[in-house]
TrEMBL record:
PROSITE patterns cross-referenced by the UniProt entry: MFS
Membrane-crossing residue ranges in chain numbering: 12-32, 52-70, 82-101, 107-129, 141-165, 171-188, 220-237, 257-277, 289-307, 313-332, 376-394
Organism from which the protein derives: Sphingorhabdus pulchriflava
Official protein name in the record: Bcr/CflA family efflux transporter
Compartments (UniProt record): Cell inner membrane; Cell membrane
A single Gene Ontology CC term: plasma membrane
Domain of life: Bacteria
PANTHER family, A to Z: MAJOR FACILITATOR SUPERFAMILY, POLYAMINE TRANSPORTER 2-RELATED
Amino acid sequence: MHSPRKQPKLGGLELTVMMAAVMALNALAIDAMLPAFPRMTAGLGLVDPNRVQFVITAYLLGMGAGSLVHGPLSDRYGRRPILLGAIAGYIVCALACSFATSFDMLIAMRIAQGLFGAGLGVLVTSIIRDQFEGDAMARRMSTIFLVFMAVPIVAPLVGSVVLIFAGWRSIFDLIAIMAVAVLVWVVLRLPETLDPQNVVPIKAKTLTASWKQVISDRTANCYMIAGATAQAALFGYLNSSQQIFERTFGAPDFFPIGFAIIAIGIACANFTNARIVERFGARRVSQTALIAFIFIAILQAFAAIFAPASLPLFLVLITANMAMIGFVGSNFSSIAMQPFGAIAGTASSFQNFVRTIWAAFIGAIIGQQFNGAVTPVALGFLACGLTAFTLILYGERGKLFTRPGTTKHLPM
């Protein structure tokens, strides 16, 4: 039996858009930076152009480490106060980044910003889990990701526009201003969603027991790590995306447009997923998408070898594969969270920690292999897809395309 859930005072649509806006702050902190990489490299005196990728990796690592903190705090003190503190800290660190006088200082501030940014993703997942579960949760999360994906579509363009009128530091100032707007909205409209019956005291023994409960679930863990591995492919591309457009295809001015095209692919996938997941089931949809991801990655590898200078072909294939990640991401996360309704905050926190650290680490390795060609990204996608599929096979004990509560295979 599940405890009765407190219904939010605001409407379901407003809750969805608000949570998307909260999550979008993380995307903004990453994607708006990308057009500024050349100026950051020059302004901070970096010799190796690949090193500037750590501006993204540092934020992601901070997000991963911070994920362990915000979940338990929200399980004890409620979702609302912890979310407000996370947004406020995010704002302060964004402003600090704009005053960084060295690359090392910038990286330190980005890690700190990521520590607070971690609360944004963890709390959104927990708030939605407080209200929904299973395929219903997957549908809401997919809708949130759909709204959230508007940011990657426009963020690089916003960053490029800022660079026309000001330096790269002003991008951080703009991020802080946008976060202030979200903070005001949350203060005025978001009620507490944590059921008092699910309050969990912060005790080492309690945390250890909760983490043990999460770790001991074989299926949830496999979906968690598989989702992280698929996300690592995305991060690998993200880290080197600006360099790919500038150095590989000689089209730096096209970068914001190309990035938007790819982001639209993910948005379309989430739009579609939100409308089909409750009909077909999160497992069936996401597992089919993962198989398609692998086949497209094979085509990417061939294209990297036989048509390395074709920007149109690159855009078609990577957009298709990013769309598959759109089907995989929210569904894998929802499946991994399904068993942990009573400890949603702690479970979401732990899973975000593992997912983000793993994805950031593997994504950084893929990004650092950039050598002027798209081959490292293509091979990284293929390796990530095969690894994720192996994990799902293990977690499901070889039985794919099933739905919770049944052992019957659904027709293809």
